[in-house]
Design a protein that fits this description.
The protein is mainly α. It has 7 helices and 2 strands; from the N terminus they run αααααααββ. β1 (about 200) and β2 form a beta hairpin. α6 runs antiparallel to α7 (about 190-195). The protein is rod-shaped. The protein starts with a helix and ends with a strand.
């Protein structure tokens, strides 16, 4: 009887030892799998972090380039305004040389010829108006000095912005009707005196 009990105890003990050993092997494999998975996650995280750092540097570079481009745009717009002002002044001086000593001849017997000459007024003689602005005004029906002299500065601004966009807000037509009035009446000396105190068509 005692021998049978001892055999049973040994069998149970052996089963326990075998179960523990099998459990230990399985646990070891699971831990190894978890460590491999964790290592893979760390590698992936490192790659994502590297990509993030690269993209962040690219974003900073893009923002820097954008600021530089905006600064250059402002400088170019200022140069454009100065160039247009200088071009207008040059055209005015040239026109004055050609017309300063001319006496306008209006035929009372030929209204068609007079109307044709009125349409041919060179609006660029007005300081502040260049070829592009002259074209816009003529398209809007302001084709001669008289019509321009009767136009309100606010209305002229609206015409320019409507045709050319918000960039034309930088032009100030306040003095254009007054200049055009002198030109329409052939008062070139008075026009010259007025333009001598203007800069790009604006009072300083």
């Amino acid at each position: 009887m005692e021998q049978h009990i001892l055999e049973i105890v040994l069998m149970l003990l052996g089963s326990a030892i075998l179960g523990f050993f099998i459990g230990w092997l399985l646990k070891k494999d699971k831990i190894s799998d978890l460590q491999t998975y964790i290592t893979a996650l760390e590698d992936k995280n490192n790659r994502l972090q590297a990509d993030y750092n690269t993209n962040e540097r690219l974003l900073i570079d893009c923002q820097t380039e954008k600021r530089k481009a905006e600064s250059e745009k402002i400088q170019i717009e200022k140069l454009l305004i100065d160039c247009e002002g200088k071009l207008t002044l040059s055209e005015i001086e040239s026109a004055k040389k050609d017309t300063n000593h001319e006496v306008p001849k209006i035929s009372t017997s030929n209204k068609t010829a007079t109307k044709s000459k009125t349409k041919a007024d060179n609006l660029t003689k007005i300081e502040g108006i260049g070829p592009k602005i002259s074209s816009i005004l003529k398209d809007a029906g302001i084709k001669d000095f008289k019509k321009l002299s009767q136009s309100k500065p606010k209305k002229i601004s609206e015409i320019l912005v409507k045709a050319g966009g918000n960039s034309y807000n930088r032009f100030d037509p306040t003095t254009w009707p007054n200049q055009a009035e002198f030109a329409a009446e052939g008062k070139w000396d008075e026009l010259k005196k007025l333009q001598d105190i203007l800069k790009g068509g604006r009072k300083e």
